Amino acid sequence: MSLLIQEVLASDAPMELLLLADPSEDKVRSYLSGSKCFVASSDGAVVGACVAQPLGAGAHELMSIAVQPTHQRSGYGTALLKWVVEFFRKSGASQIEVGTGTFGYQLTFYQKLGFRVTSIDHDFFVNNYAEPIFENGIQHFDMLRLTLRYSDNVA
Ligand SMILES: CC(C)(COP(=O)(O)OP(=O)(O)OC[C@H]1O[C@@H](n2cnc3c(N)ncnc32)[C@H](O)[C@@H]1OP(=O)(O)O)[C@@H](O)C(=O)NCCC(=O)NCCS
Predict the structure, then answer these.
(1) Mean pLDDT, consecutive 10-residue segments, the chain of 155 residues?
(2) Rounded Cα–Cα distance for residues 109 and 66 (Å)
(3) Which of 95, 108, 112, 121 has the most CB atoms around it within 10 Å of its CB?
(4) Where are the alpha helices (DSSP H) in 24-153?
(5) How far is the centre of ligand 1, averaged over its atoms, from the C-alpha of 77 (Å)?
(6) Hey, where are the domains in the chain?
(7) Ligand 1 site, residue 90, Cβ cutoff 6 A
(8) Are 77 and 65 in contact, with CB atoms under 8 Å apart?
(9) Per-residue pLDDT at 51
(10) Considering only CA atoms, which residue is closest to atom 40 of ligand 1?
């Protein structure tokens, strides 16, 4: 797998890709300009993207991560997430947070890299999105907040 990962300007963020992770373009645009955007390319084509927003006090929030559907389940998402985790570790960050649904493969995707559940935001997906969000026929209601604390993962 040959993957080039680099930080790009928010204005160059691949919006179509980011919408796979967050269906609201308004929401994506609202956090994009104050965030760092990372893009993964293979053979010159963009295959993945990730956006992280600073929360202050050395914490960052992963706002979005997505891989082109044609390239999913090939390890690109894991490689991109690992790269971003290392990027912030090297920058001296204290932790990375992410919000995700209470079920589905995304939950294990984050946990495999050391993210732990730290809180639950009840009815988040009902209160923050105009349309109900379903996955595998089940409606998403609540959002889990997961945190990777660098002090828990000393190499
Ligand atoms: C989440 C996402 C970025 C993962 O990227 P990826 O390149 O597919 O991930 P990987 O190939 O590294 O696989 C990671 C794990 O997720 C699993 N996985 C990925 N896509 C899956 C799917 N559609 N269904 C079930 N499992 C899936 C893989 O099997 C793998 O599990 P394993 O380690 O047990 O084999 C990608 O699937 C995606 O873009 N999804 C849509 C957007 C999204 O949901 N983003 C996250 C918002 S919280």
Answers:
(1) 92 94 89 95 95 96 97 96 97 97 96 97 94 94 98 70
(2) 12
(3) 95
(4) 25-32, 76-90, 105-111, 124-128
(5) 6
(6) 4-152
(7) no
(8) yes
(9) 97
(10) 66
**3-state secondary structure at position 23:** coil
Helices of type H across 50-91: 76-90
Give the type of residue at 67. V
Cα–Cα dist 82/76, whole Å: 10
Q: Is 102 in the pocket of ligand 1 (CB under 6 A)?
A: no
How much is the pLDDT for 153?
65
Q: Does 122 sit in the ligand 1 pocket, CB within 6 Å?
A: no
Query: What is the CATH code of the structural domain delimited by 4-152?
Result: 3.40.630.30
Give the model's pLDDT for residue 118. 97
Is the CB of 129 within 6 Å of ligand 1?
Answer: no
How many angstroms separate the alpha carbon of residue 90 from the centre of ligand 1?
A: 25
**What number of residues does the chain have?**
155
User: Nearest residue CA, atom 45 of ligand 1?
Assistant: 21
pLDDT of residue 121: 98
Predicted TM-score (pTM) of the model is 0.94
Tell which residue, 16, 4, 54, 5, has the closest CA to residue 33.
Answer: 54
